[in-house]
Design brief:
Number of strands: 11
Strand order of the largest sheet: 3-2-1-11-10-9-8-5-4
Oligomer: single chain
CATH class: Alpha Beta
Distance between the termini: 14 Å
Order of helices and strands: EHEHEEHEHHEEEHEHEHEH
CATH topology: TIM Barrel
Strand content: 15-25%
Number of helices: 9
Length: 284
Amino acid sequence: MPDYGHPLRFATFIGPTNSPPSRPVELAQLSERLGFDFVTFQDHPYQSSFLDTWTLLSWVAARTERIGVSGNVLNLPLRQPPAVLARAAASLDLLCGGRMSLGLGAGFYWDAVQATGGRRLTPLQAVAALSEAIDVIRGMWDADGPGSLDVDGEFYSVHGAERGPAPAHEIPIWLGAHKPKMQDLVGRKANGWLPSLPVMEPGGLPKGNAIIDDAARAAGRDPREITRLLNIFPGQQTPQALAQMAVEDGVSIFILASDDPDVLERFAAETIPAVREHVTRERA
């Protein structure tokens, strides 16, 4: 059984609808009052029915006090260039007192990405581009690193870039990953694996964990450094099933996808305590 040693936490996954624009902010504030640890938002910049996720993250961080914020996950091909994204993330982290996490995806819905001005990539190119972006982002955050930043990649290059600012805390980079190449990248470079249970094949958690753990060891990393997150949908899993994924598959952050306040309240009042109780019993 994997035991990655991370505390059990819970988050919400909200659609950044613009009708009305106050709704996602109110849901984030409700998530904070209910005791969730993070609030996360979809990122589909090509959809006019959604508020811009990055703008929304900043506004939510300003309208809350404790809860962490993250994209789930940011569409890298439309969040360019990585050096500027790094500065934006560090700036928000400084402004909100260290509550920022950086969820990243390699890209999807390529017709929409290209229509909005992004570059269409093959799956292998998208993984390679994300890998290069992580190097740029981490290099920018390393404000005390030697000299200016130079990264010479196929997709992203910086030459003589001024580093910084350093974020308020070590911002974790979580990758949305369902395929082996992306899971390998999680193991080599990321702080967390963020898949979605409804689109995962049977046995996907242990299979993905094995790929990530092997890649981490090959890169000289301890697999326990990598947080295992999971997007879940209401009513699809019992508290016992969630507890089993925590104990047997090492999931430590469950992210509930719902825009329904009643669902969020029931989950916080009923499911979270039940999952914690089951996990405590199983680990004992």
